[in-house]
Write a structure and sequence with these properties.
six-stranded antiparallel β-sheet, three-stranded antiparallel β-sheet, 11 strands, 47% strand, globular
Length: 120
């Protein structure tokens, strides 16, 4: 389990970075935008290993309107202490893109999306 503070902060993007969509690698559906990048626990990017031994490089976004939130939220084996997770699926092809996290003080929520399943 990953221990982190409860803070979720906007990530300041460099001014020179062009605004473009971040899309599903499999179908090209728009998932989010660079401006929605946030820091959770002091970082935008995290690498975790799940109980099954699989590693994931996760990017955090405050908004991911191109995702479907699927399943009942669970705190079992959460990577962000105090946050319950459910699956984040592509709204178009239903591919698994990562996880939606819901915090103790609604509406504190964010998406942790798997970097290799996105085109940035």
């Amino acid at each position: 389990m990953y221990q982190t503070s409860q803070s979720v902060e906007p990530l300041q993007a460099p001014q020179a970075q062009p605004e473009k969509a971040i899309v599903c690698r499999d179908c090209g559906h728009e998932i989010t935008r660079h401006r929605s990048a946030i820091e959770v626990g002091g970082a935008h990017e995290h690498t975790f290993r799940n109980p099954g031994g699989y590693s994931f490089h996760v990017l955090c976004f405050g908004e991911a309107p191109g995702c479907l939130n699927a399943g009942q939220p669970s705190q079992e084996a959460t990577w962000f202490a105090g946050y319950a997770w459910s699956f984040a699926l592509c709204a178009a092809c239903h591919g698994h893109l990562g996880w939606c996290y819901r915090g103790p003080g609604e509406p504190v929520q964010f998406a942790g999306l798997i970097a290799t399943r996105l085109v940035r």
